[in-house]
TrEMBL record:
UniProt KW keywords: Endoplasmic reticulum, Lipid metabolism, Membrane, NAD, Oxidoreductase, Steroidogenesis, Transmembrane, Transmembrane helix
Lineage: Eukaryota, Metazoa, Chordata, Craniata, Vertebrata
Record-linked InterPro entries: 3Beta_OHSteriod_DH/Estase, NAD(P)-bd_dom_sf, NAD(P)_dehydrat-like
GO molecular function annotation: cholest-5-ene-3-beta,7-alpha-diol 3-beta-dehydrogenase activity
Gene label: HSD3B7
Known function: The 3-beta-HSD enzymatic system plays a crucial role in the biosynthesis of all classes of hormonal steroids. HSD VII is active against four 7-alpha-hydroxylated sterols. Does not metabolize several different C(19/21) steroids as substrates. Involved in bile acid synthesis. Plays a key role in cell positioning and movement in lymphoid tissues by mediating degradation of 7-alpha,25-dihydroxycholesterol (7-alpha,25-OHC): 7-alpha,25-OHC acts as a ligand for the G protein-coupled receptor GPR183/EBI2, a chemotactic receptor for a number of lymphoid cells.
GO terms (BP aspect): steroid biosynthetic process
Name listed for the protein in its UniProt record: 3 beta-hydroxysteroid dehydrogenase type 7
Length: 409
């Protein structure tokens, strides 16, 4: 089978700045948080021989990947979790049959990365700075997302690790700076991937590095096999932005005000399915290197196509919030003005405090531009089917928001 590339390749331009097998379903409910409980549920009948490293393993997605690996990867012998900030929840994982090694480290430090990678069979690189709110400088975003990824690749080459899965992003493709819609497109849909914001620029550069590294000889002479997963907007247990919207709604007396037309579709995917896709890709990359090496895959599931705000209401609605208005309450030009004002305020206040509201010109453009995917490439290449139905994903997320509510009282 030939390479699938072309259209939404994401090898776009940055115009500014440096820069199938379904196994046991995860067990629900961790202290009411809806996170998964049981560590080390790997099937003991199969040989446990592989060492996996998850960078960013304590982040929103990373934690789900870690728990999913422990539940769904029978070949796992040791799981290394590498993160700048280690979570206390890691302790509970250490009692299971799989050796869990927590490594506090920084991806920008090549020697720390190399030490963590040495001896690992597979690296899942999810660590990154996700910042579209101006909290971090463009230089730092570039350093962590691009140089950090370069360090991971070099560590694989130097230490002989052959399989690398990179968590990329839909933003590698778009929405682009022209705000052109990408309507239910796939990995081959033509689209002008041109970015200006530091975050998508950094993800695009990092993804390119990962894909170009496919086939490089690692220590021992065998080829490195890489691929990149591009989630759309991830939601689910632990999603900070959902939490922010929820608290904003509570502050506004249980209301959120519609700012985006209901007709603008924004792609969303459940975190459990994104984690499952990572586990499956990591496993199948070892058997289907010729087909999967150097490929990109959008992360998808059966979550409905909706606007960003309407989608959030699927969870926030049952938790008592209401979205006011069937149309945006403010005209777009006024929203844009407020977004620009926020940028000015952020700049003025910077010496005193960090002002980083959800609304800025970039987030407004993101939310206001249709970007949805419809693809079956992951199913065709490595048998991916979502592990969680939409109903399950929704229920789990609602339960988690309700627990956030409980803990806030
Ligand atoms: N959240 C989304 O909607 C989304 C969508 C598409 C892609 N992604 C990608 O998924 C990955 C994970 O995103 P997330 O939403 O879980 O973000 P997150 O911030 O929750 O997790 C990122 C993790 O990386 C760690 N990290 C940051 N800098 C590091 C460094 N220098 N060294 C080591 N670890 C470091 C953080 O401590 C954190 O635990 C990112 O690469 C992001 O670009 C996220
Ligand atoms: C104008 C506001 C009125 O309610 C709504 C602002 C919403 C924004 C804060 C979010 C809209 C789209 C989101 C992004 C998208 O889902 C995909 C992303 C890719 C990923 O790699 C990182 C997260 C994000 C950039 C995500 C961030 C939040 C939005 C911009």
């Amino acid at each position: 089978m030939g390479r699938e590339g072309g259209g939404a390749s994401g090898r776009g331009r940055c115009v500014a700045g440096p820069g199938a097998c379904r196994r046991r379903p995860p067990v629900a409910g961790l202290g009411g948080l809806g996170l998964w409980l049981q560590p080390g549920m790997a099937d003991s009948a199969q040989a446990q021989k592989l060492v996996y490293l998850v960078t960013g393993g304590c982040g929103f997605l990373g934690e789900h990947v870690v728990r999913m690996l422990l539940q769904q990867e029978p070949q796992l012998r040791e799981l290394r979790i590498f993160d700048l900030h280690l979570g206390p929840w890691l302790e509970e994982l250490k009692t299971g049959p799989v050796q869990v090694t927590a490594i506090q480290g920084d991806v920008t430090q090549a020697h720390e990365v190399a030490a963590a990678v040495a001896g690992a069979h597979v690296v899942i690189h999810t660590a990154g700075l996700v910042d579209v709110f101006g909290k971090t400088s463009p230089e730092t975003i570039h350093e962590v997302n691009v140089q950090g990824t370069r360090n991971v690749i070099e560590a694989c080459v130097q230490t002989g690790t052959r399989f690398l899965v990179y968590t990329s992003s839909m933003e590698v493709v778009g929405p682009n700076i022209k705000g052109q819609p990408f309507y239910r497109g796939n990995e081959n849909t033509p689209y002008e991937a041109v970015h200006r914001h530091p975050y998508p620029c950094s993800k695009a550069l990092a993804e390119q590095l990962v894909l170009e590294a496919n086939g490089r000889k690692v220590l021992g002479g065998l080829p490195l096999v890489t691929c990149a997963l591009r989630p759309t907007g991830i939601y689910g247990e632990g999603h900070q932005i959902m939490r922010d919207f929820y608290h904003q709604g509570l502050r506004l007396g249980g209301r959120l005000f519609r700012a985006i037309p209901a007709s603008v579709e924004h792609g969303r995917v459940y975190v459990g399915n994104v984690a499952w896709m990572h586990v499956l890709v990591a496993r199948e990359l070892q058997h289907r290197a010729a087909l999967m090496g150097g490929q990109v895959y959008f992360c998808y599931d059966n979550s409905p196509y909706k606007s960003y705000e309407d989608f959030n209401m699927e969870f926030l609605g049952p938790c008592g919030l209401r979205l006011v208005g069937t149309r945006p309450l403010l005209p777009y030009w006024l929203l844009l003005f407020l977004a620009a004002l926020n940028v000015l305020l952020q700049w003025l206040l910077r010496p005193l405090l960090l002002y980083a509201p959800l609304l800025n010109p970039y987030t407004l453009a993101m939310a206001n531009t249709t970007f949805t995917v419809s693809t079956d490439k992951a199913r065709r290449h490595f048998g991916y089917e979502p592990l969680f139905s939409w109903e399950e994903s929704r229920t789990r997320t609602i339960r988690w928001v309700q627990a956030v509510e409980g803990s806030a009282q």
